[in-house]
Amino acid sequence: MADKAGNNKGRIVFVDRRGTDSCKWDDLKSNFGRDGLQAMWVADMDFRVPDCVIAAIEDYMKTGVFGYYVPRPGYYQAFIDWEREYHGYEIKKEWLRFAPGVVPAFNWLVQVLTGPGDAVIVQTPVYYPFMRAVKNNGRRLVRCDLINNGGVYAVDIARFEKEIIENSVKLFILSSPHNPVGRVWKRHELKAMLDICKKHGVYVISDEIHHDMAFGGNVHIPSATAGDYDEMLVTLTAATKTFNLAGCQNSFVIIPDAGIRRRFDSFAEGICIHGGNPFGYVAVEAAYRGGREWLEQVKDIIYGNYEYVRESLKKSLPKAVVSPLEGTYLLWIDFGAYLSASEIKGFMEERCGLAFDYGDWFGGERFGTHIRMNLATSRELVEKAVSSIISNLE
Length: 394
What we know:
By secondary structure, the chain is of the alpha/beta class. It has helices at 23-26, 28-32, 51-61, 73-87, 102-113, 128-136, 157-167, 187-199, 240-243, 258-271, 278-290, 292-316, 344-351, 379-393; strands at 38-39, 96-99, 119-122, 140-143, 147-149, 152-154, 169-175, 203-207, 233-237, 251-254, 321-322, 330-334, 354-355, 357-358, 370-374. It is globular and about 60 Å long.
């Protein structure tokens, strides 16, 4: 069980990251215009990584030589074994390509799979870098809102297909599990979306970076295992969210189709990015080989934090809508019964001293009364944030 400091039997260690050059904590001014806020935003944990990762990096550092590096076969095999054992996805090594992060990867793939002016569809509210990738690469953004049933979200299949047809969509960027609404898509939901894309010749990028974060009996299903989609689908994932390794800049691009791989390789050759830094390779291999127990304990902390937020708001602010946390460690909350979209940022920052990702970032003003709360932190900070919101609204 986790204690109030976020520790789990002494094994999961909460780290006060202020003053450590943390983007989440030390770069608040550039994102929120002020310092000193309690950071409950960006998907970045406040936990010390697994001991096996630290030991592996220390061993590598002791070599004292940090020259050009070739990832060893064990790096790939650790990931392949992980995906087979925990997600039932049989991946071949030749399918794997490198990217320094999932965000760079889907920006690259927008260029690889589409041309200037082509339409790209996303399901809003959605991780906002999806929309930036479309616009920044000169493509046309098509938004298809998810159906919101009291905080539980579903795919609007009829509208999804209609938008694809009417806009001649060439690419769909899928969030699975869905960020920010916390859905873990069921197999029939994935098949419905992917079958429509296959029918209309639409490529799919499946961002599955949160795939190890599924809760409450929900099971993540890799999009590639939902049917026969290899010729149209690229899967992106990483150890980043699973083990808090974002700074290692290491992610996997899974491309089963040889033709898409050739196009991706040609693009990578043009920008001359073929691999990452050795610390990332070393950390990722170690995490996949020895980090499972750590992950399960962290998931217990995260889900306990979710239950605390849900029950506290249910008791004190019963009209706040807390979306069920099926996946990710990001909680989607609608305070529309208490705050207008124009009020929420000032309330959270000036009255409560808190920094969140705001709903309008994820698809526009219609989501403006929502916040996205990062639960991958100590219970103490979660309690402090919730107490501040409640005391300022009651």
